[in-house]
C-alpha cells in the first residue's frame, strides 16, 4: 500500500460566505476592520458576533449607527440529522434585522437559509452556505460588493424604460395613456 492509500480522508469544511454592502462604504469605510478575501476558521462552539464593539464582536463594523452587538451566527447540527446549519439571532434592541423579508426583533432567531439576504439599517449582506462535513470547526469568507445586493426599492417611474435602456424622446402623459399591443398586431 502506498502512503496515498493510507492517508486519512480529507474532510470538507462548511463555509459561510458573506458579501457586504453599504451605500456609504466608499467614504465612511465602515468595513475597514473586516478581513476580506481570506477564509477564517472558527471553532464549532464559537458564536460569530457582528457589531461595532471590537472587544465583543469578531466582526467589527465601524459605524455609530450599528449596535454594540448587532447580530450573531451560531453553527450547529440539526437534531437527529447529519446536516449542519447556522442560526441567526438579532442582538440589537434598537434595530430590526430582516432575513429574506422575515423581520427579527430583539433576541428573535431563525435558521439561516442556505442563501439569503440579511438587512439592517442601510446594510445588506448576502449569506451563502457552502456545505461541508467537518464537525469541530467551520469557516467564514468575507467579500465586499461594489453594487447594492438588493435592487433599490423605489416607486416605479412614470415613464416606461424599454429593454434597450434608452428612454423615448417623446414625453408620456399628453392626454394619452399607454396601451398594450399584441406583438402579432405589429
TrEMBL record:
Stretches assigned to the FHA domain: 49-121
Gene3D superfamilies for this protein: 2.60.200.20
CDD domains found in the cross-reference section: FHA_TIFA
Entry keywords, A to Z: Cytoplasm, Immunity, Innate immunity
Entry-linked Pfam families: FHA (PF00498)
GO cellular component assignments: cytoplasm
The name this protein goes by in its record: TRAF-interacting protein with FHA domain-containing protein A
Amino acid at each position: 500500500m502506498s502512503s496515498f492509500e493510507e492517508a486519512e480522508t480529507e474532510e470538507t469544511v462548511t463555509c459561510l460566505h458573506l458579501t457586504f454592502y453599504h451605500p456609504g462604504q466608499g467614504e465612511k469605510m465602515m468595513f475597514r476592520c473586516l478581513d476580506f478575501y481570506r477564509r477564517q476558521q472558527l471553532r464549532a462552539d464559537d458564536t460569530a458576533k457582528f457589531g461595532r464593539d471590537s472587544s465583543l464582536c469578531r466582526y467589527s463594523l465601524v459605524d455609530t449607527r450599528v449596535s454594540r452587538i448587532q447580530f450573531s451566527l451560531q453553527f450547529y447540527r440539526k437534531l437527529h440529522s447529519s446536516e449542519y446549519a447556522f442560526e441567526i439571532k438579532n442582538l440589537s434592541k434598537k434595530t430590526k434585522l430582516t432575513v429574506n423579508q422575515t423581520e427579527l426583533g430583539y433576541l428573535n432567531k431563525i435558521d439561516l437559509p442556505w442563501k439569503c439576504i440579511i438587512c439592517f439599517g442601510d446594510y445588506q449582506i448576502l449569506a451563502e452556505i457552502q456545505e461541508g462535513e467537518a464537525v469541530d470547526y467551520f469557516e467564514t469568507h468575507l467579500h465586499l460588493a461594489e453594487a447594492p445586493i438588493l435592487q433599490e426599492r423605489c416607486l416605479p417611474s412614470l415613464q416606461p424604460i424599454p429593454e434597450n435602456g434608452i428612454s423615448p424622446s417623446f414625453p408620456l402623459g399628453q392626454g394619452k395613456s399607454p396601451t398594450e399591443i399584441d406583438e402579432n398586431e405589429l
